[in-house]
Amino acid sequence: MTTERNDSNKSDFLRLFVADYSDPVHGAAIVRLLDGYASEEAGGGEPLSEQVKKELVKALSRIPYAYSVLCFEADLPVGLINCLQGFSTFKCQPLINIHDVVVAESHRGKGICARMLSLVERVARERGCCKVTLEVLEGNRPARIAYQKYGYSGYELNPALGKALFWQKML
């Protein structure tokens, strides 16, 4: 577990750590934060289904290469990053893909995202990963700015061919 103090307000005490999926407090925090994000415009504008709320943490716990970073202020969950380990064939090394980044609306602009990204990166290095990847919506300017400040940029192999696009096909 990592504990940090928020230097901008000495009364704020933040705890950042890798979640324990078997801990009901951690599980409830993951569902609460992700449901809040899903309900926002940037998250699709729809809350999580009751089935997803019920099954999400159990499903994550069955994936050995999944982990979540949580941030609490006292007893209040204020930040979440869900990560899945993948593999870079070009580097022949594992990588971490950040699948969700959530900071509670009341706590945005306080550096919580950067602190969580730092912990994600530390875990990735411990796992021997070559990089950390993430997706961000074009129109989510605040998130794009935050990620760029922390060193993220669009993925490209050859500038003449442009940046990679993230596509999907629903099954």
What does it look like?
This protein has 171 residues and is an alpha+beta fold. It has a single domain, classed as Aminopeptidase. The protein contains four helices and six strands, in the order ββααβββαβα. It has helices spanning 24-39, 50-61, 112-126, 141-149, and strands spanning 2-5, 13-18, 66-73, 76-88, 93-103, 132-134. Strands 1-2-3-4-5-6 form a six-stranded mixed beta sheet, with helices on both faces. Strand 3 (66-73) and strand 4 form a beta hairpin.
Indicate the percent of residues in helices. 25-40%
Number of helices, counting only DSSP H or I runs of 4 residues or more? 4
The number of distinct β-strands equals: 6
Distance between the termini: 37 Å
Give a quick rundown of the structure.
The protein has four helices and six strands. It has helices spanning 24-39, 50-61, 112-126, 141-149; strands at 2-5, 13-18, 66-73, 76-88, 93-103, 132-134.
Q: Could you outline the blueprint of secondary structure elements for this entry?
A:
Blueprint: E1 2-5, E2 13-18, H1 24-39, H2 50-61, E3 66-73, E4 76-88, E5 93-103, H3 112-126, E6 132-134, H4 141-149
Parallel strand pairs: 5-6
Antiparallel strand pairs: 1-2, 2-3, 3-4, 4-5
Which key terms come to mind for this protein?
6-stranded mixed β-sheet; alpha+beta; Aminopeptidase; globular; 171 residues
